[in-house]
Structure prediction request, 565 residues.
Amino acid sequence: MKKSFFILLLIVNQHLAAQNPIIIPDTLSGTRFNLTLQYGTHPFFNGTATNTMGANGSILGPTLIFNQGDSVSINVTNQLNDTTTIHWHGLHVAPENDGGPHTTIAPGATWSPAFTVLDKAATYWYHPHLHKKTNEHVSKGIAGIIIVRDAEEAALTLPRRYGVDDFPLVLQTKDFNPNNQIVVPSNADDVAMVNATINGSLEVPAQIVRLRLLNGSSMRVFNVGLGGNQTFYQIASDGGLLSSPLALTRLPLGPGERAEILVDFSALEGQSLLLKSYAAELANGIYGATYPGLNTNMTLDGYNPNPLNGADFTLLQFNVVAATNNPVTAIPTSLVTVTPIPESGADLTRELVMSPVTMGLNQLNGDFVINDVPFNMAIINYDVPLNNTEIWSITNQSAIAHPFHIHDVQFYVLDRDGQTPPANERGRKDVIMVKPQETVRFITKFENFANNTVPYMYHCHMLYHEDRGMMGQFLVVDRIAGLGHEQGQPLAVFPNPASTTIRLAVGPEIQVQAVTITNLLGKTVFTVAAPAVATPIDISQLPAGVYIVKLLHQRGEASRRLVIE
Ligand code: C2O
Ligand code: CU
Ligand code: CU
Prediction:
């Protein structure tokens, strides 16, 4: 008697639950865009107003539609009482347009980046990126979708009517306090939402529909699937279409990752289908599994108990209605030619190790670091010569999986622990999950943009980890001024940071006349005339700090920033 009553309640609840039509963000298109960052309130729960932040509204932001090749300009006005930044996640833009932590927008100020859209058709996103505040600003609501369109994609028979047969779905979890206010940071994110709508539903036509999935969560990994294990087809990864649609029943998505999928609703008119996270299938050692650490004795403050951890849960209910005019009725057999960069083309490999600051059973609470150093706004971790092709080898020496993200580029995954990656990771990516004890290698080329002072970031996209220092930065450095790109060689100072000696690398056509090192006060602390370039320069007597290395050559001078540790 008691039991059947309970079951009935559950059924009624489930039925009542998924009935909030989700928000579909407005679109902005053209070449001039205005975004205003503002405070607001949002009715996540009936009857209460939750304080939020949004762009051009109280939560999330409009979907920006860019065409490849267009020159776009954007005004981002900050009406918050807090400094912030806006980063175009996944787009290949110059560092000064990238919106990283150095490109701050003060309260009341407007930042106006302008750039040419060089990216391939795919789903990107924008979000704040102020150092130590990224988690707060994103969790409180600022995140928007960017759709890039290009000719290659336009030539395919794919759904692309926004809000009709093509929908952005921002998948997130958040933690709310008893007053229904967002708690950040928190490992107790027990409320799932799609487009800021809890227990959401979406009417979809009975035909092939495109879903642009973004994991916009601070921390949580979703294991996306459809009710009844219905097959869907992944057509794009973070930065471009795949070579052909991939039939899947599960798609793990880490924070920051995107995927476009096609779902065939044509036989389901009048019925419903659930979009779920099959988190019960997540291996331990992933945020979202029963145990967030590989070692099940490791605990993470606030993590358990949580009904979303290690349990399957619903993200969204699709209610299938009549088909539209001119529906897309078939899954294409092929998409685009994906041309990964061959491993043999690499100029060098950089090794990055992600590790907890303290090993042991409490390590999940962090902090985590990359190559043993926490992020420091004043330290450039790498100088990357412009046009270098590089392999980045990322090793995770911690007990929890981290989504590694790099700005400026899309990359191709070479291998996971030496094994060819799964088919859906063989396209263009800018975030890659690195599991505990795993090494993932990717290859990429640093083209088009160089700047000797404004760096790009790389970091863990679990926003608490990022804010706490699991981030680094690199400059893409141009060829020496006055020499053509083609003949010119980069001036590189290495290693950098350095502690004992440094060496210079310059092109053979350059006649070095002098090298000087100055400190940040402009005082020359080292100088040598007509040095033999290959000879190491002893810097062991110089105090730790930031220096400028200046090289005088026959056509002028070049300088690089050097960190002495
Ligand atoms: Cu989506 Cu550096 O960020
Ligand atoms: Cu990014
Ligand atoms: Cu992390």
